[in-house]
Specification:
The protein has 280 residues and is an all-alpha fold. It has 2 domains: 2-191, no CATH class; 204-279, no CATH class. Helices cover 72% and strands 0% of the residues. The protein has helices at residues 2-21, 25-50, 55-84, 91-111, 113-120, 127-130, 144-148, 158-191, 204-217, 227-238, 245-253, 261-279. It is globular, with a radius of gyration of 24 Å.
C-alpha cells in the first residue's frame, strides 16, 4: 500500500528530526509518541477502508509493515517509562537500574524463545495462524495486549514482532546509557581539577543552523574553513555529537515555519537586551 509506505517514511523523518531538535529524553519521547499514535490511526483507517486483496497481502502487512509502526511506539513508551522512573544516585545505582531493565528484555526473550526462533529464521509455515486476523489459538502464548486490541486491526503475533524490533533497539539504548555513565565517570576523574568546560545545552539543530551561518559568512580562517572542520571543532569545544549534520540542514531547508528559527531568536533576544541597556 503506497499510502502506508509514505506515512512510514514521513514518520521516520519526523522522529529523526525530533531526536535532533530536542535533547531532553522524556520530552523527546512524548513528542514522538504523539506523532506515532496519529500515524497508526491513519494506517488503521486505510486498512479498514481498503482491506486486503489476498491472504498473502494481509500476512505481509501484519508481519512486516504494521510492526514497523508499532515497534516505534513500544520503543518510545519503554524509554519514557525507564527515564521517568529512573532513580537519582550514583553511577553504581544507575547501572544497576539499567541492568535490571536489560534483564526484563532477556526474560521476554526466554518466555518467547520459540517465536523468536520462528521469526529470526524467516520461517513462514505458521504465518497463516500468526498474521491473519481471527486465526489465533488459545493454546498459543499471547500477550495480554491481544485480548484488549481491536481484532479488526490485530493478529495474534504482529505485536510480538513489534516487541522484538523494539526490544532490539531498547537493548542498544540501555547499553549506550551504561557506556555514557562509564565515560562520564572517566571524564569527571580526568577533569576534576581542570577548569569547567562549556557544554552546549540548546538543541543540536540550533547549533547546526548557527554553524552553517558562520561558515557561509566566512568567519573562520578567512572563509577557507570547510563545514566538516568547523563542526568537528565545535563538537570538541562543547562536548556534543552533531551526527549527520548535512541531513539536518536538508530538514532545516524544508521547515514549514521559519528556516532560520534559531538565528531569528538570537536577533530578537539581543535586540531586547540592547534596548533594555539603552533604557538604563
Amino acid at each position: 500500500m503506497h499510502k502506508i509506505e509514505i506515512l512510514l517514511k514521513n514518520l521516520t523523518e519526523q522522529i529523526n528530526f525530533i531526536d535532533l531538535e530536542i535533547d531532553d529524553t522524556v520530552l523527546k519521547c512524548e513528542k514522538s509518541i504523539e506523532i506515532i499514535i496519529q500515524a497508526l490511526q491513519k494506517v488503521k483507517t486505510i486498512v479498514l477502508k481498503t482491506g486486503f486483496k489476498s491472504e498473502d497481502e494481509e500476512i505481509l502487512f501484519f508481519k512486516e509493515t504494521k510492526p514497523l509502526f508499532t515497534s516505534k511506539r513500544i520503543y518510545h513508551n519503554s524509554i519514557y517509562r525507564i527515564e521517568t522512573k529512573k532513580p537519582s544516585g550514583s553511577t553504581r545505582i544507575l547501572k544497576k537500574y539499567y541492568n535490571n531493565e536489560l534483564e526484563k528484555l532477556k526474560r521476554y526473550f526466554d518466555d518467547n524463545l520459540d517465536f523468536y526462533k520462528y521469526y529470526r529464521t524467516k520461517s513462514t509455515y505458521l504465518d497463516y495462524k500468526y498474521f491473519v486476523r481471527g486465526s489465533f489459538d488459545v493454546k498459543q502464548s499471547l500477550d495480554n495486549f491481544y485480548y484488549e486490541a481491536d481484532l479488526n486491526f490485530t493478529t495474534s503475533h504482529d505485536f510480538k514482532v513489534a516487541k522484538i524490533l523494539a526490544n532490539d533497539l531498547l537493548q542498544l539504548y540501555l547499553e549506550d546509557q551504561m557506556i555514557l555513565l562509564d565515560n562520564k565517570n572517566q571524564k569527571n576523574h580526568i577533569h576534576q581539577n581542570s577548569p569547567t568546560r562549556l557544554t552546549w545545552t540548546s538543541s543540536k539543530v540550533a547549533l547546526i543552523e548557527l554553524l552553517y551561518a558562520l561558515q557561509t559568512e566566512g568567519v573562520f580562517n578567512n572563509g577557507t574553513a570547510d563545514l566538516k572542520e568547523i563542526v568537528e571543532n565545535f563538537e570538541k569545544i562543547f562536548n556534543i555529537d552533531l551526527g549527520q549534520f548535512h541531513r539536518v540542514f536538508l530538514e532545516i531547508r524544508i521547515r514549514k515555519s521559519s528556516q532560520t528559527k534559531f538565528l531569528d531568536s538570537l536577533k530578537e533576544v539581543l535586540t531586547k537586551r540592547i534596548n533594555s541597556a539603552d533604557e538604563k
